[in-house]
Each structure stands twice: as C-alpha cells, then as structure tokens.
Specification:
Elements lengths: L3 H15 L4 E2 L10 E15 L2 E14 L6 H15 L3 E4 L4 E4 L5 E5 L5 E13 L8
Parallel strand pairs: 1-2
Antiparallel strand pairs: 2-3, 3-7, 4-5, 6-7
Length: about 140
C-alpha cells in the first residue's frame, strides 16, 4: 500500500535532482536558509469494497527564496522544470513494491506580495488493495 509519506519522499528526491536545496515536510517560518522547497500532502481515502481503496492526494510544492533575491524568470524556469519532471507521473517506492502514480492537471501559481513564491499542486489518484481480514466484516 502506498502512503502519503512514500509519495512525499519520492517527490523530495526528484526535487533535489532539479535544485539541490533543502526540502522540508513542515512549514518552517524562518531559519531555513536562503531558499527551500516545502512539501505538503492532503489526501482522501475511500473504501470501494472489502478488497479495494480509492486514494486521492494533492501534493503541494512551495518554493521560497530570500526576499528580493528571486526573479520572475527564475520562478517560471523552475516551474517548467518541475512540470517536465512530474507531468508523466512518479515512481513511488514502498517497502514491498514500486508503483507508478499519474498526476492529473498540475497547477502552478506565483504568490506573495512581491511575487516571490512558487506554489504547485500535483493531484493524483490511485487504487490500493486492502489486506484481506475477513474478521472485520
């Protein structure tokens, strides 16, 4: 079964290939250095039947660089690099398997009063088998 943490770990690995800077899973307000990526996952799991779960997860990538130290050109270039990396999906490795998940309709937005923050949303949908434990039914 794929967990959100499995997905975040593999997204982090891919981001480090694009730009070798820190990647945090927490929202750190200060002390992260000159620039960093921040990751967050918001997911929903629905049991389809006693054998199958449907999973929807949105992965949020936020790129922050020190104020007045990032240009619009740099942000748009980074956005395109991230899109190129994830538009075909991601191979997610768990303890027992490697699976491919596809991201649907990736979005990107430049935020902040100074237009100095890049935020991207990678929505994914995948199915997981439920370990069969008939004692629950």
């Amino acid at each position: 079964m794929i967990t959100q943490l499995d997905i975040l770990k593999d997204v982090s690995k891919e981001l480090k290939k694009i730009k070798n800077i820190p990647v945090f899973l927490d929202d750190i307000k200060e002390g992260f250095g000159n620039e960093a990526f921040f990751l967050k996952a918001i997911g929903k799991r629905t049991q389809i039947n006693r054998y199958l779960n449907s999973n929807e997860v949105n992965i949020y990538i936020t790129y922050v660089k020190a104020k007045n130290d990032v240009t619009a050109t740099e942000l748009y270039t980074l956005k395109d690099l991230i899109l190129d990396t994830f538009y075909t999906g991601l191979f997610v490795k768990t303890d027992t398997e490697t699976r491919h998940i596809k991201f649907n309709a990736i979005t990107a937005e430049i935020l902040g009063a100074d237009g100095d923050i890049l935020e991207m949303r990678l929505p994914a949908f995948y199915m997981d088998a439920i370990e069969n434990d008939d004692s629950k039914y």
